[in-house]
Each structure stands twice: as structure tokens, then as C-alpha cells.
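Worked example 4.2. Below are the chains of a multi-component assembly; read each line carefully before continuing.
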Amino acid sequence: MTALTKPASANSQESPIERSHQSRFKSPQQAFWGGVRDGAGGPAMVLFAGMVGFGAMGNTNGLSLLFTGATSFFMFALPGQVVLLEMAISGSAAIAIALAVTLTATRFVTMTVTLFPQLHQQDRNRKLYASVHLLAMTAWAISMREFPSMQSQYRKQYFIGLGLLCWLISIPGTILGYFLAGMVPAPITLGLIFINPLFFLLTFTDVRPWINRLAICFGCLLGPVFYLLDRDSSLLTTGLVAGTIAYFIDRKLLRKRPGVIG
Amino acid sequence: MHHALSGWGLWLALVGACIGTYLCRAIGVLLSKRINQDSEIFRWLAAVTYAMVAALTVRMILLPIGLLATVPGWIRIVICVLSVSVMISKPTRRLVPALLTGTLLMVSYGALR
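Applying the procedure described above to all two chains together yields the following C-alpha cells:
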């Protein structure tokens, strides 16, 4: 009973003002399926192709299907998965592998910290510790882009729809890639592997405020430098240095000019 | 030197990697409770995150491992430039055509070499 009456009363409380300026979704279910739809339109396909590439990598390097699939299911972070595979093949110690992968995952700290404060206050509870597993680069990039177009109470459902699709699609993708490896010609495998970095690169053209555009430019320039200095910690150091430079340029120079922030 | 990890060591590495990855996500949830999206620290963290993601992308393109490393660096860069040009050629972004451009170019390079 209460479950039925709740959405109606929640709507009536904020109807005149809140609904008028942004009303992309009218119910949480709609937001959920909106997330699924936005994911299915391209991003999830890209991730699927990336996971096919990963599955193929696992097979060609002599790992079992169970291990390769478990990596996608429990880790669900393609760059970390590639690092795990790379280091396992070259015979690194288990502890070194775990540390290196954790370092590549530090981006999730800031991704979560930048995404979840945009959720409605009511949704910011312990359940987020479960939903955060769905957070990866794809879902983060799309959510950051789409969140401003919807009311905050629908953002969580939107994110879950998008993230769940991405997560669930990664398992069949990995399995398919595992079996396809060796069956498809090398040029096709090459294309599949290349889709992932290309997708990330293309989403950068959609990034809006200038501070983040600057951060991306500095990250691209400094990334290889720090990589050559120390491979395992390079993502973290690049992020901190490049992000801080972008922040100060924005704060000291850009924000004083009208019309630049946006 | 080049003995691939196997058996229990391999699974141990996976368990460690999964725990580490989840911990980073959980720490994010913990910290996000105290951060307001209009604050200075939020702006700084967003910049740091974008820089990290950019570094990761550049690493995957310029310093890849495995099959992609067999493609000369300048070819990878040219294909990226062409794809980005397709993407920004219209104000309404064309993600799928741009992705197809890049992927098909890479497949054709692989087929022709």
C-alpha cells in the first residue's frame, strides 16, 4: 500500500517548480530503463567489444576460462584486468600484482567521489556500497554527462540501469572472446582491442568545463613521462600533478574571465 | 624469469586484485558522504580524475602491450586523429561513426600489412 502511494506524494510535493525545469524522467523505473537504453546505444557495445578482446587475451596467454571470466565478474575494471594479465604472464609475485592493480584502481576513489554527491540525499546510504561495484569508466563517463539533464532523485536508478547492463554484458563478452580467439583472423582481434582506448579518447571531446579539459590535456602530456619514471604508480602521480595544475590554472586565470566557466 | 604465474599463486593474485579494486570503490563511497558537489575540493578531484583517465587512455594507445604493440605508433596516432576528426565534424557528436572509422581503419591495417 505505502509503496503505491509514495511516488505520487513525492511528485506532488515538488511539482510546480522542480518538474518544470528538468523532467527527462517521471519515475524511477523510467530512469532505470533510460540508463539501460543510453548504455545499449553504444557504450555497452564498446565495453562488450573490449571484454571480447580481454577474453581473447586470456585464451591466447593460456589462462583458463574460469579465471578469465572471474576476473571480469569480480574486478570489472578492464585496465586493471589487463595489468593483472600482463603481470601474471611475466611471472610477477602475487602481492606485486595485487598492489599494481590496486594502484590502477585508485581512479575509482575520485570517480566515486565526483559522481555520488550528485545523487539525491535519500539515495546516499549504505546501499551504495553494493552499487559502487557497477562503477567503471564507461558508466562514470556517461553518468557525468547525463546527470545534469535529470532530477537528482532519478540519478541513482539511471546509474544502476546503465552500470548493471555494462556489468552483465561483460561476462558473455569475455566468454565469447575466449572462444573466438584463434578462430577470428588477427586483424579483427586487433580492431576489438583498439575499441576500448578509442572510445575513451572520443568521450573526452564531450567533456564540458574548461578545468576538466585542461586536466585531460595535461594528463595526456604527463602520462607517458610518469609512466617511464615508474610504471605502477604513474596513473596516480599523473592524476595528482596534472589535475592540480589544471585546478590552479582554472582558479587563478580562467575563473576571473566572465563566460569561461561552463 | 618468464615463468607465468599458475595455480594457487594466480588465484591469490586475482583475489588480492579484486579486494584492492573494491576497496578503492568503497573508499570513494565513504569519502563522497562528506563532499559537496559545489565545493573547491570537488572541482579539484574532478580534475584529478579526468587527468588519471586521460593518462590511462594515452597509455593504452601509445604504450600498449600484446597485439596492439605490433602496430607502429604513428599508425595508431593517425587513426586516433582521423576518428576524433569524424567525432567533432558535427556539433551533434557522432560517436558510433567515429568508433567505426577507427576500428575499421585498424582492421584494414591489420589485413593489409
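Take a moment to check your reading of the output against the notes. Residues 65-113 of chain B form one domain. The helical segments of chain B are 7-32, 40-62, 73-88, 95-112.
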